[in-house]
Design brief:
- With 123 residues, the chain is α+β, with helices and mostly antiparallel strands.
- It has one domain: Roll (Nuclear Transport Factor 2, Chain: A).
- The chain has a three-stranded antiparallel sheet, with helices on one face.
- Strand 6 and strand 7 form a beta hairpin.
- The longest helix is centred in the N-terminal third of the chain and has 14 residues.
- The N and C termini lie far apart (31 Å).
- The relative contact order is 0.16.
Length: 123
């Protein structure tokens, strides 16, 4: 299935055009990176019985009783369930203690053997 490549500027996502003004298709590792990043931003099953794959942000991810290791495993599972993801070699999470905001970055191997990676604001 062909998917359009998207470009993120701050919090805004838009369709990506090349220098000649043509739409760019996402495939391989680029598509896996893009899709895994979207999945990490979806609140799964939290609102209106939404059953799309995603992260239980409103429950487990903000619950102080859930350990950091368990939270990382939730993120790992979401990334590895993304079509095209074969393995996850790196998942880093950093929390700014002054603001309480968290950021994550990850990289892995896609089905085509290429490396996929992305960074995401988790808070």
């Amino acid at each position: 299935m062909t998917q359009l490549a998207l470009q993120q500027t701050g919090e805004v996502w838009d369709v990506y055009f090349d220098e000649s003004g043509d739409l760019v298709e996402a495939s391989g590792a680029v598509e896996t990176s893009q899709n895994s990043k979207f999945r990490l931003q979806i609140i799964a099953g939290e609102l209106f019985e939404d059953t799309r794959p995603g992260v239980p942000w409103l429950t487990d991810m903000v619950d102080p009783r859930v350990s950091i290791d368990d939270k990382k495993q939730i993120l790992r599972n979401v990334i590895l369930s993304t079509p095209g993801a074969v393995s996850l070699e790196r998942l880093d999470i950093a929390v700014d203690e002054a603001t309480g905001t968290a950021e994550g970055s990850f990289s892995g191997t896609a089905q085509d053997g290429e490396t996929f990676s992305a960074s995401i604001n988790l808070a």
